[in-house]
Amino acid sequence: MALDLYIGVDLGGTKTKAVLANGSLEIIREKTIPTQMDSTETILKSVLNAVDAVWDTEEIKAIGVGTPGQLDRKRGIAIQAPSMGWSNVPLAQFLSNRYGVPTYIENDINVAALGEFSCLGESEANAVYVNVGTGIGAGIILSGKLFLGNHGNSGEFGHLTMEPMGPLCNCGNRGCLEAIAAGPAIGARATQWARARKNSQMHSLALERELTAKEVSEFARSGDPLAIAVLEETGMYLGRGIADLVCLFDPGMVIFGGSVILNSPYVWDAMLAEAEARLMPIIFTNTAFLRARLGGDSGAIGAVVLARERSREDSA
User: Fold this and answer.
1) 100-156: pLDDT as tens digits
2) DSSP secondary-structure letter at 161?
3) 259 three-state secondary structure
4) What distance in Å separates the CA atoms of residue 260 and residue 147, rounded to the nearest whole number?
5) Is the Cα dihedral 30, 304, 261, 122 positive or negative?
6) Which residues pair with 197 in a beta bridge?
7) Which candidate, 159, 193, 186, 155, places its Cα nearest to that of 175?
8) CB atoms within 10 A of CB 240
9) CA 219 to CA 197: how far, in whole Å?
10) Cβ-proximal residues to 217 (8 Å cutoff; 6+ apart), any chain
11) 143 φ, ψ to 5°?
12) CA distances to 56, 88, 213, 254, 268 from 263, in Å
């Protein structure tokens, strides 16, 4: 009996990763390449190059793709993704025509949630996956199934309003969590603070240009009190948002991915302290707060899960 194989693609604005895996999610082959962002055509070419690098068998049953932005899942169309600079791209049809197998698309954060959830071995559990990096989003798993909402827009965690008169978000609102606690917001806040604080290690660099979140984390590790304060404030806001999520969905676990949380103990500790302060004790103690286990593979593995589950549903 032939072994069912699947391809999962994690498509992002910086890199594209493809994996060939079996139904047990064991990776057989993988390839990561830079995403060529010059045009829609070059982005699609990046996807093809990644898939071609792992495709060498006729036993592949389906392809799953995690991609940013708003999607028409039934028609397999990437409707809009500002980070990719494209709109109304028939992504699933493009890949199906090329490779001759069913192709399914899903939001990148949702497929990462599927990937992380697949590690847990709890098929009926409730979980929330939160990613904090350049942006902020959440994937919600209820009774073992991805919860999308009526219009497929669930999990826009980054657009919870934290400060009604706060910084302008790219969605047009003010004070969104993403505008306060995502990577670019951390860099902007640290730059503003450091320019006024000559005793900070960040001061000279902040006068030259805007800092990055990675640099703020590095300054914090070297003991800069101002950098630590920036990251702890970030964690505080994230903790407030996490408390809201836990109150709404009562998940058994919240899983965290993304560079902002995973690379900074100051963010992590402040976030959990704030969540604990704002949740009823019985709720906080009964919720597990976990770091992502798959690291950079969560999106691609989640795309394999998507391909496996959707193809099985369609053939049932």
Assistant:
1) 999 999 999 999 999 999 888 777 789 999 999 988 999 999 999 999 999 888 999
2) B
3) helix
4) 25
5) negative
6) none
7) 159
8) 18
9) 14
10) 227, 231, 263, 264
11) 50, 40
12) 36, 35, 10, 17, 9
